[in-house]
Amino acid sequence: MSAPLQVYEPFRAGLPPLGRYWKSLWARRTFISQYSKSELREQHFDSVFGQLWLVLNPLLLSAVYFLLIVIIGGSSDSTRYGHLTASLFLFYLVSNSLTGGVKSVTAGQRLILNTAFPRIMLPISATIIALFKFLPTLFVFLVMRTIIGLPFGWEMLWAIPVFFIALLFSLGVAITISCVNVYFRDIASFLPYMTRTLLYLSPILYEASSLSPKLRALEVFNPLFPILDSWSQAVVHSQVPSTASLLQGLAWALGIFFIGTYFFLSREREFAVRL
Amino acid sequence: MPSVSNAPLATNEVAVSVRNLGLTYTTAIDRRPTLKARLKSFGGKQTRTIRALDEVNLDVEYGQVLGVIGTNGAGKSSLMRVIAGILPPSQGRVEVYGSVSTLLALGVGFNPAMSGRDNVFLGGLAAGMSREQIEEHFEEIADFSELGEAIDSPMRTYSSGMYARLAFSVAATVRPDILIVDEALSTGDAKFKEKSFNRIKELRSDDRALILVSHAMGTLREVCNDVAWLHKGKLIQRGEPNTVIDAYQEFLHVGKSAAVDEDL
């Protein structure tokens, strides 16, 4: 018998066989790249102006905040502007991943009801799309920091591990929220408020070091705090980020990723019923 | 593993084996599950349990063309989804030998904002085909669907007939070992109906199993060599098409009329 045998039996709560799951996910990796490509094309990000908009959008946003802080607030520090822009760009990686991820499963309804495939592909694609939107902004930031004369140094390489922590975190939140949205469809409407709150609670409009120690004690509850702080240390100040921040960020990212993935995998077999 | 394989399979070999299959699910009374609704109904349980399939035993062999009939809500689509691996069974066991291609009620086109071409590729990739395999079949799919230039327009601009045509073309072109078609036979205009009907006839072969869910009794009488009748999740009768369909129509008290034979 050369034909592949597939057996379907009732599942007990918990994870599907991970080895087989991973294999079938890996076999479909082209789906993820194709999906991201089609999605970006559909949002016109394959054209010059589309790409430009990708950069322009966060740049305009940072200009708005620049106005708020530097002009109205009366501080004229180029480092401050660099920090604001760099942090905002990374924040958008996370927030795009969240907003893209939240409806990834519910929007994939037709596909889920028609085909058997590892459902986790959908939130993963959402994060990849957010990543593709992030990459050009990184380039813009590099040009900008040269213009405003921020120091360059090898310490900037610390941005690489920080970036991967941020990416893992984005993936974790995308997986988690896409799963939650299947059960509570109104989460998507709360999301703008959640991201907005996260934006103000994170060291973006201000620097982590400028917070009073009392407030800083609360930072342990904000997963983005250590990640954004390390990011700013590395790419703006060209300093080695504190180990505590790095580890804290990593712990958050790993925690959210594993908990979210566990929930997703143990729930995804009933998505077809819930949609 | 839905992929295209042309492994020679002898007739009378089992393609799908369904044993004591049961499927239950709880659905919320609310159409859309929301946090708000959950909070409002805190404490009170607002769900009801549906027994979609009950002790179903069914074997499909290669070379068979099985028609599945039954009233709305009989569990036909649920059974197809379990065989396709989309819904996990609650009891029992399903074994599937070979690659499965599904054309369930919804068909392709999961992202209406994307073009037909993108949707065909995404659907195929999700089903586990490689990009090369899809490219190889794409021309044929596009030709068969007769969509012409429309294949590159967003699917939201398609009419429901165009949707159905594309979906049918995809499922019928990849030549799987096992093809499941759920109520998608009688879509499109008369010309396309005829065409898809002929395609189904072409697809009948000793090394393929076809499962067709349909209300078009005339079509089933003509193409199937076996019919299963489901009612309220239970398998009522299985056997020679004319016998089972006659019994089913007797049961429906509709008798044999042109309207029933054609499309219900």
UniProtKB/TrEMBL annotation, chain A:
Membrane topology reported for the UniProt record: Multi-pass membrane protein
GO CC annotations, alphabetized: plasma membrane
GO terms for biological process, alphabetical: lipopolysaccharide transport
Gene Ontology MF annotations: ABC-type transporter activity
Pfam families: ABC2_membrane
ABC transmembrane type-2 domain: residues covered: 49-267
InterPro entries linked to this entry: ABC2_TM (IPR013525), ABC2_TM_bact-type (IPR047817)
Protein name: Unannotated protein
Automatic annotation (TrEMBL), chain B:
Transmembrane found in the keyword field: no
Keyword DNA-binding attached: no
Pfam family name, one: ABC_tran
GO cellular component, as recorded: membrane
Keywords per UniProt: ATP-binding, Nucleotide-binding, Transport
Domain ABC transporter, chain residue ranges per copy: 37-257
Any one GO MF annotation of this record: ATP binding
Family classification: Belongs to the ABC transporter superfamily.
Protein's name in the database: Unannotated protein
Gene source species: freshwater metagenome
